[in-house]
Amino acid sequence: MIGANTLQEFVVARQADFAGATGDLSRLLTDIGTAAKMVNRHVNSAGLSGILGMHKANGGASRNVQGEDQQKLDVYADDTFTRVLRSCLKVGGIVSEEQPGIIHVDHSDRGLGKGYGKYMVCIDPLDGSSNVDVNISVGTIFGIHRRLSPLTQPAEVEDFLQPASELVAAGYVLYGSSTMLVYSTGGGVNGFTFDPSIGEFFLSHPNMQFPEHSRVYSINDANIPTAVPGIAQYVDDCRSRGLTARYTGALVADFHRNLIQGGIYMYPGSVGKPAGKLRMLYEAQPLAFLAHQAGGATRCHHHDLLHVDPNALHQRTPLFTGHVDEVNRLADFLQRAAIAAGEAN
Ligand code: AHM
Ligand code: MG
Fold first, then answer.
1. CATH top-level class for 216-344?
2. What whole-number distance in Å separates Cα of residue 138 and Cα of residue 136?
3. Contact, 193 vs 201, CB < 8 A?
4. How far is the CA of 112 from the centre of ligand 1 (A)?
5. What residues does 195 pair with on adjacent strands?
């Protein structure tokens, strides 16, 4: 791996580890890096370039498919990533948090015959975007599946509804005090820091693993009283063991900190919202894949999220992800609480 310091060099060098690799995935990953640089520039200059605040359409606040208000930067990041991904010949379809259905990518108008590309990309273009207006970190999350249906036809919903264990690659971009791209193709997790003076991502965090000792638990404290039984007891347990609380409201930032410092992130379901808030395909699954590669685990209440079959493009799921010991310990609390309530399955 000598000389494999930039993201592009590293991705290409890693390709040699996979027998029969064609370079298609490498091209897709470097394209994601290019889009990340474009979004990074906008996020960093948002206060100067008039792109803070809500996006307006038809005279009112615009909303995405989930009925959530869109920030101007949500729309910019969605436009940028989907434009770059559509131009990548290896992509056959995209599911974005910001758009209702599958974005089909047909390359036949580029003189390449009928062809839709073999990779399906699920993406949250700007996660935690309400943080932008107050200058706190935000992120991009992506997961890549190999399509199941033939290349000669538009992608089907089933091409996206695969378990996280089947992901070919997943990663995130963290727009923080420095900008990082962290990804895995299954052989460990590697992190790259953006050098704005050169315009490149450089390998800075090789082979990332959760530290053995967890220091942090991350949960929205206001949700604890209404969360499913077992959460409050587990949080008390964390406090009694000396873990400290950290929660930014940006999933990528919280996950990244816990990956580096050791810890667990929790967004549980509640009585009113049993599936919680976070989305399965472009938030939970990519982080579950990364956590698994980094010696961690991920659950959604009573199941290992890595092996759960999704049932809808914009499905929500409870999410518990972090060091495997903490996730297992939480699972015990949830299981005991469910048995006590007569609900265990
Ligand atoms: P978003 O995709 O609309 O930005 O929402 C996802 C974000 C996550 O980044 C974060 O962990 C969570 O929502 C915070 O939610 P809450 O404010 O309910 O704690
Ligand atoms: Mg999001």
1. alpha beta
2. 7
3. yes
4. 40
5. 200
Q: Where are the domains of the chain?
A: 7-205, 216-344
H or E, element range at 18: none
Q: Do domains 7-205 and 216-344 have the same CATH topology?
A: no
Pocket test for ligand 1, best of 221, 224, 267 (most atoms within 8 A of CB): 267
User: Facing residues of 175 across strands?
Assistant: 138, 179
CB 290 within 8 A of CB 297: no
The answer, yes or no, to whether any atom of ligand 1 lies below 6 A from the CB of 256, is no
Q: Enter the tokens of residue 92.
A: 């056959």
Span 26-54, pLDDT tens digits: 999 999 999 999 999 988 876 666 655 66
- For ligand 1, say whether the CB of 129 is within 6 Å of any of its atoms: yes
Is residue 37 within 8 Å of residue 84, measured between CB atoms? no
Closest protein CA for atom 4 of ligand 1: 128
Q: Which tens digits make up the pLDDT trace of 187-238?
A: 999 999 999 999 999 999 999 999 999 999 999 999 999 999 999 999 999 9
Q: Which of 138, 251, 280, 314 to mutate to test the pocket of ligand 1 (most atoms within 8 A of CB)?
A: 251
Beta strand ranges found along 58-102 (DSSP E) = 60-61, 91-96
Among the bound ligands, name the one nearest to the CA of residue 251.
1
Please name the helix (run of DSSP H) or strand (run of DSSP E) that holds residue 266, with its range, or none.
Answer: strand 263-267
Ligand nearest to the CA of 66: 1
Instruction: Give one DSSP letter per residue of 208-262, joined into a string.
Output: ----SS--EEE--GGGGGGBPTTHHHHHHHHHHTT-EE---S-HHHHHHHHHHH-
* Top CATH class, 7-205: alpha beta
Contact (CB, 8 A) for 205 and 309: no
User: What is the DSSP-derived secondary structure letter of residue 308?
Assistant: P
User: Strand, helix or coil at 180?
Assistant: strand
What is the rounded end-to-end Cα distance, in angstroms, of the chain?
47
Counting atoms of ligand 1 from 1, which one is nearest the CA of 250? 9
> 3-class SS at 70?
coil
Q: Which helix (H) or strand (E) holds 319?
A: strand 319-323
Residues 6+ apart with CB under 8 A from 38: 80, 84
Residue 260 confidence (pLDDT): 98
